[in-house]
Amino acid sequence: MTKRVNKTSKLSKTKGKTAKIGRPFALEATEQTLDTLRGLGRIQATSKETAAVLNVSEPTLFAFFKREEKARELWERGQQEGRVSLRRQQFAMAQTSATMQIWLGKQYLGQKDHSESSVHVKGDHTITHVEKPVSETLDWVESVLGRGQEGALSKSLPN
């Protein structure tokens, strides 16, 4: 019976230094790699995109993050910094853009668009209905008009 030997735990002597035998890691925590990770985090690069830029597979990137906690922390910190930077730019843009003010109001203040539907019926009657999805508005109009067939109005309207 032969004894199995784990190559990564086997040590050899090279010029007085002890070195591990085995395949070298595809990623090392060099200053350049860490800077690249932080920069990719800032632009919200996905793990798949990050792996592609570093020329490794996604599982290799995850193994690197597991082995080098500092690398994962820098990537995540970069993501946080990127979100803060984007938010800062959005708020600055809101100083001069009404569209951005409306969008930010919807995102942070719970504001929403109000929709209004009007239907003109023969004669001088107008039916106005506010803040309902189109399908609900059509059902409501049909009920007000007393249509016998449900969905008759919505089927007659073009898409």
Low-confidence stretches: 4-10
Fraction of helical residues: 40-55%
The overall strand count is 4
Strand portion, in percent?
5-15%
**Oligomerization status of the protein chains:** single chain
Which class best fits the helix and strand makeup? alpha+beta
Shape: elongated
Number of helices: 7
Strands of the biggest beta sheet: in what spatial order? 1-2
Order of helices and strands: EEHHHHHEEHH
Task: Note the main attributes of this structure.
159 residues, alpha+beta, two-stranded antiparallel sheet, 7 helices, 4 strands
Tell me what you see in this structure:
The chain is α+β, with helices and mostly antiparallel strands and 159 residues long. It folds into 2 domains: 26-113, no CATH class; 116-156, no CATH class. The protein is 52% helix and 13% strand. The strands form 2 sheets. A two-stranded antiparallel ribbon has the order 1-2. A two-stranded antiparallel sheet has the order 3-4. It is elongated and about 100 Å long. The N and C termini lie far apart (76 Å).
